[in-house]
UniProtKB/TrEMBL annotation:
Record note on cofactor: Binds 1 FAD per dimer.
SMART domains: ETF
Protein name, per record: Electron transfer flavoprotein subunit alpha
Taxonomic lineage of the native organism: Bacteria, Bacillati, Actinomycetota, Coriobacteriia, Eggerthellales
InterPro entries tied to this protein: DHS-like_NAD/FAD-binding_dom, ETF_a/b_N, ETF_a/FixB, ETF_asu_C, Rossmann-like_a/b/a_fold
Organism: Paraeggerthella hongkongensis
Record keyword Transport present: yes
Assembly and interaction partners: Heterodimer of an alpha and a beta subunit.
Cofactor(s) the record lists: FAD
Length: 295
C-alpha cells in the first residue's frame, strides 16, 4: 500500500508523513512550489512552479503524480493552496475529500462539522481516500525516510489562473502548529499596546501568541497566521491560555483539543469559563502583570 502526502511547510510534511507511515508501506511526499522536506518519506517529489504561475495550478502535475504512484490514501496539509490541490485530486479520482480530520481510528476519520458544533466519522468509498489533516493529529518526531528527491515538470492546465500582481506581506515568525503552549488574545484587548502584556506572559511560559479573528482581521493588530478558529488555524496544544477571549464557538473550535485550558476574562459569564479547566475573573491589565510577577 502506498500513501501520498501533499504539504507546503516542513512541520506539516513531517507530521503527515509520520501519519502516512502508519497507513501504508511506502510514503511519497509532494512539495508544490516549495523546497521538499527530506528524511520524512521514501521519496519526495518537487514541483517547480514557474514565476507568474499559481501553486493552485500545480493540480495537473499532482494528479499525474498520483496516477503514476497509485496511492490508496492522500494526506494533505490544510493550507489554502493545498486545499485546492486536495479538491482537484479528489475530483480527478472520482471521490470527495474528507476535510479537517482530527483523528483516525479503526479505519474511520473523525471530522468536525457545523463549525465544530458536532463531529462525525467517515470512510471514503472510492479507490483513493483524500484527507486534509490539521496540526496535532500525528507525532512529527516519528517521521522517517530518505533523502531521495525527484523533479516533476510543472504542467500548466488548459485554463490556468492569471497572476496579475504580487505583494509582499509583512514577515511573520508565527508558527502556532509547532507550539506546545498557545496564549491567545481576544476583544478584551482594547488597545494594541496592551498586547505587550500577553507577549510578556507568553515569554514567561514559553508560549506562542495567537488571537481570535477580530485582532487579526478586524483591527490588524496581529498577523493572519496568528488567527485561531474555524477559518483560521486548528490546533491541539498541550496548554491554551485565552486572555480577553469571550469563548465563542468560532474561536474555540480551533483549540478545543488542547490538553489544559486556562482563561482570563473580566466577564464572569463569558462562555469560555464553561470550556476551560482553570479561569480567572479579572481585568487583564491587573491579572497579567500579577501572573508574570508570580512566575
Amino acid at each position: 500500500m502506498k500513501a501520498l502526502v501533499i504539504a507546503e511547510t516542513p512541520l506539516a510534511a513531517r507530521a503527515l508523513c509520520a501519519g502516512a507511515r502508519t497507513m501504508a508501506d511506502e510514503v511519497v511526499l509532494v512539495a508544490p512550489g516549495v523546497e521538499p522536506t527530506v528524511g520524512v518519506a521514501d521519496k519526495a517529489v518537487h514541483i517547480d512552479v514557474p514565476a507568474g504561475s499559481a501553486i493552485d495550478d500545480a493540480y495537473a502535475t499532482v494528479n499525474a503524480i498520483a496516477d503514476a504512484e497509485a496511492p490508496s490514501v492522500a494526506l494533505v496539509e490544510p493550507t489554502r493552496r493545498c486545499k485546492v490541490l486536495a479538491g482537484r485530486l479528489a475530483a480527478h479520482a472520482g471521490t470527495a475529500a474528507v476535510t479537517d480530520v482530527i483523528e483516525f481510528a479503526d479505519g474511520l476519520a473523525t471530522t468536525m462539522y457545523f463549525g465544530g458544533v458536532g463531529q462525525r466519522k467517515s470512510r471514503p468509498t472510492g479507490g483513493l481516500a483524500v484527507y486534509t489533516v490539521g496540526a496535532g493529529v500525528f507525532d512529527e518526531s516519528a517521521a522517517t525516510g530518505t533523502d531521495v528527491v525527484e523533479e516533476a515538470a510543472f504542467e500548466a492546465p488548459e485554463r490556468a489562473l492569471r497572476v496579475t500582481g504580487e505583494k509582499d506581506l509583512p514577515a511573520s515568525d508565527v508558527d502556532l502548529p509547532a507550539a506546545d503552549v498557545v496564549v491567545a488574545g481576544g476583544r478584551g484587548f482594547a488597545e494594541e499596546a496592551d498586547l505587550g502584556l500577553m507577549r510578556d506572559l507568553a515569554a514567561k511560559i514559553g508560549g506562542e501568541c495567537g488571537c481570535s479573528r477580530p485582532l487579526a482581521e478586524g483591527v490588524d493588530w496581529m498577523p493572519k497566521e496568528a488567527y485561531i478558529g474555524v477559518s483560521g488555524v486548528m490546533l491541539a496544544p498541550k496548554v491554551y491560555v485565552g486572555i480577553g477571549v469571550s469563548g465563542q464557538m468560532q474561536h474555540m473550535v480551533g483549540v478545543n483539543r488542547a490538553g489544559t485550558m486556562f482563561a482570563v476574562n473580566k466577564d464572569k459569564n463569558a462562555p469560555i469559563f464553561k470550556q476551560c479547566d482553570y479561569g480567572i475573573v479579572g481585568d487583564l491589565k491587573t491579572v497579567l502583570p500579577a501572573l508574570c510577577a508570580a512566575l
